[in-house]
Design goal:
It is an enzyme of class 4 (lyase). Belongs to the OMP decarboxylase family. Type 2 subfamily. GO terms for molecular function: orotidine-5'-phosphate decarboxylase activity. The chain is of the alpha/beta class. It has one domain: Aldolase class I (TIM Barrel, Alpha-Beta Barrel), CATH 3.20.20. It is 42% helix and 16% strand. The strands form two sheets. An eight-stranded parallel beta barrel has the order 1-2-3-4-5-8-9-10, surrounded by seven helices. A two-stranded antiparallel sheet has the order 6-7. A hairpin with a 2-residue loop joins strand 6 and strand 7. The longest helix has 19 residues.
Length: 274
Amino acid sequence: MRSFGARLADAKSRRGPLCLGIDPHPELLQAWGLPTTVDGLASFCDICVAAYAGFAIVKPQVAFFEAYGAAGFAVLERTIVALQAAGVLVLADAKRGDIGSTMAAYAAAWAGESPLAADAVTASPYLGFGSLRPLLEVAAGHGRGVFVLAATSNPEGATVQRATADGRTIAQVIVDHAAAANAETRPQPGSVGVVVGATVLDPPDLSTLGGPVLVPGLGVQGGRVEALAGLGGAASGQLLPVVSREVLRSGPSVAELRAAGEQILDTVAYLSTE
């Protein structure tokens, strides 16, 4: 299998630089006239799959599936398969992170041969970047990607992420580790990305990352598309803006969901050519 970095670059060139989220929050299910049950969850995801089939990459938020137990994970598995059958890359937003054999088990679940394994997964490095090595190795061996949390938009995150070590913020240390991992696979596009929130005022330096930058928080969470320009010195081709609720609130109409996503994609694509 080709590397995730190469597949993502190809998908973005054909379908545009936007990641759409599937966040089946109970309030959204209710707004769509769906029950807050596994059946409602499945219907929600079926609508999203139909609406998002023409986009490059989609990010299901794992927590909202996990809330339904084993039946919720079964819906997630079916949703991953359906999106991939439509040619869409899938980023499982699981934010897993641990040490030793536990991290190895998470790696097998989200980046190995498990039914839950997607094209990429988010991960938390705050037990030390080295603790992610089992995940990075399994992901690389299966042509999958990993997006590592670096600088998040939540106010609490700054107490850890903006602390310093050897003259660098912890967020910068995370980015630099990801850059080193991507350097090992050059000249291929890097498959180790980082997550930098759209509302972060002083982002880490991303100029040497050599991989994708997932940028959540646009729209409802306060991030503006215009703020993407020059984010941390990243090239526009590295940025992968995420929009979830801003589009999902247009549902449950498949056509209206697709139109809302395409409208944001047009804006993001235009800015990336500036």
